[in-house]
Amino acid sequence: MATLQEVKQLAESRGARRVDLKVTDLLGRWQHFSMPIDRFTPELAAEGLGFDGSSLRGFQPIEDSDMLLVPDLETAAFDPVPQHPTLSLICDVVDPITRERYSRDPRYVAEKAEAHLRTTALADTAYFGPELEFFIFDDVRFQQTPNTSFYFVDSSEADWNSGRDEAPNLGYKVPSKAGYSPTPPFDSHSELRWAVVEALESVGLTVEVSHHEVATGGQGEIATTYRTLRHKADEVQWYKYLVQNVARAFGQVATFMPKPVYGDNGSGMHTHQSLWHDDNPIFFDSNGYAGLSQAARYYIGGLLRHAPAVLAFASPSTNSYKRLVPGFEAPVNLVYSVRNRSAAVRIPTYSQSGAAKRIEFRPPDGTANPYLAFAAMLMAGLDGIQSRIDPGDPLDKNIYELPPEDARRLATVPPTLDAALDALEKDCDFLKKGDVFTQDLIERWIEFKRAEVLGLNARPTAYEYELYFNG
Q1: Given CB 3.0 to 4.6 Å as the disulfide criterion, which of 23, 265, 268, 323 pairs with 214?
Q2: Peptide bond between residue 168 and the one before it cis (omega within 30 degrees of 0)
Q3: Domains contained in the chain, number
Q4: Gap between the Cα atoms of 139 and 119, Å rounded
Q5: Which helix (H) or strand (E) holds 74?
Q6: Alpha helices per DSSP H over 143-228
C-alpha cells in the first residue's frame, strides 16, 4: 500500500506543481479538482477535499450537497496531458457527517462487488479485460434547436471522401467495413494511436496491441491487459481520457459513441472476464466444451439470463441500440459459442492455457460507466453459478445466416434503452445481493436514463422528415 510519504517523494522526483483529484460521476464521466502541491497535506489526504455533490450528475440533492473526496494513494500517477507537471489521484466519495462511503459512488459499487465475490467462496478474484473501440474524426458538428436538428462528422480517410476536392485528393481511403488493420497510408492514425499507447503506459497501463478497426472514418482500438475489476475500471477512465486528449493534441476529436456513422460498424466494449481462486483459474476444464468448466458455463448462464437488465448499465445510451441491431455486425443474440463473434458470449481460443481461459461478453459499449457495468456483469455471472443457471447448448454457426424461422427462436438483447430499463426494473434482485447495488442507486440511474429516452422520443429527426414530410 502506498503511503503519503511515498506519494510526496514521487511528486518531488517529477517536479509536480499541482495535484489533480479525479472522481467519476454516476453516469461515468471523469471530473477533476486541481490544487497547488503544497495544499496536498496529510490532513487533506486523510480527511478529504470538500466539494458540491449536487453539481455532479446523479449525486446528492442540493440540501445534502456537502461531500468529501478522499484520494486513493495507490492510484497516484503523473498525468501526461497538462502543460504543468501534475500528480493525479483517483478519489473515493465520503459523507462528511457519517464518514461512510457514498452508496452512489460508482467506484464504491465496484469495490463492493469484489467484496461480495469473496464472501461467496466461489472465487477470490475477478479479472476484467475490456476492448474499447473508438472513432477519430477530423471534424464534428451537431445542433439541436426547436427548428433544427443535425449532426455532421468527417474524416479524411473515410470512403465517402473519395471524390472530394482536397487539393489534391491522394486517395487511399478506407472502404466501408474493410478497415481492419491496414497499413499506412490507409491507416492515417497509426502515429496518433502510438502517442496514446505511450501516454497509457506512462500512467501504468500495459498495452498489448494497437490497430485500425473495421469501420471507415477513423475507427481504432488499443488493447490493454486485464486487471482486477475495480483496477480495470480505473484504467478505463484513464484510457478514455487519454484517447480524447491525445486526439485533441493532434487537432482531431475522438468519440466512444457506439454508432456515430450509419451503415458501418459501431464501437463496442467487448468485455473479457474470468474468475480465480487461490491463484487458480476456475473457468478452465480441459474436458469441457471449449475448455470451460461447469462454473464457467453457469456464469455464462447468469450473464445471458440477466443480460437485458445488465445492458441498462453496460449499453446505457439510446445510441447503443443503433449498434445493437439484428442482422448487422453487433452480437444481439443471447447465445454462447467458441470463437463465434455473432454470439453475445464468445469463448476465445487464442491460447489453450488454463490461465488464458475466459469468456467475452460482446454487447457492451464505451458509453458505460465501467465501475457499474463490470459490477453488473460480475453479479449476473455469480448469480448464474449460485443458481446453477444452465446456458443451454452452444450455437457454433454464423447466426446471421440462420433461416428466419430458426433465428426467431433465439433470445435477443433489448431493442431499445427503454426496454433495457424495463428489464432492470423487473430483474434487479441479483444486483442487490451483498448491498452491491442499492435500490436508491438503481432508481436514480433509471430516472436519468428515462429522461434521455423521453428527450430523444420527443424530437423529430432528419430521417423522419425524409420519410414523412411529403407524405
Answers
A1: 265
A2: yes
A3: 2
A4: 50
A5: none
A6: 190-202
Q: Is 63 a catalytic residue?
A: no
Q: Is 47 a catalytic residue?
A: no
Choice among 107, 193, 212, 270 that is catalytic: 270
Nearest in space to 196 (alpha carbons), one of 214, 183, 209, 181: 209
Cα–Cα dist 107/232, whole Å: 11
**227 catalytically annotated:** no
213 is catalytic: yes
Q: Is 447 a residue of the active site?
A: no
Contacts for 150 with CB less than 8 Å, ≥ 6 apart? 141, 142, 143, 462
12 is catalytic: no
Q: Based on the fold, state whether residues 98 and 135 are members of the same structural domain.
A: no
Residues 337, 443 within the same domain: yes
Cβ atoms within 10 Å, residue 239: 25
Q: Which of 6, 52, 139, 201 is catalytic?
A: 52
CA angle 366, 369, 373 (to 5 degrees): 90
Cis upstream peptide for 185 (omega within 30°): yes
Model confidence pLDDT, tens digit, residues 330-354: 789 999 999 777 789 999 987 788 8
Question: Same structural domain for residues 357 and 418?
Answer: yes
Known catalytic membership, residue 131: yes
| Burial track 245-271 (b if 16+ CB lie within 10 A, e otherwise) | bbbeebebbbbbbbbbbeebbbbbbbb
The 10s digit of each residue's pLDDT in 417-436 is 999 999 999 999 999 999 99
Assigned domain for 178 exists: no
In whole angstroms, give the CA distance from residue 104 to residue 192: 36
Q: Is residue 147 part of a domain?
A: yes
Out of 92, 138, 234, 360, the active site residue is 360
- Residue 252 is part of a domain; what is its CATH number? 3.30.590.10
Of 79, 111, 133, 285, the catalytic one is 133
The pLDDT-based confidence of 408 (bands split at 50, 70, 90) is confident
Q: Are residues 204 and 291 in the same domain?
A: yes
Tell me which of 105, 187, 221, 285 is the catalytic residue.
221
CA angle 126, 130, 136 (to 5 degrees): 160
Domain with 85, as residue range(s), is 4-102
- Residue at 163 is within a domain: no
| pTM exceeding the 0.90 threshold for the entire prediction | yes
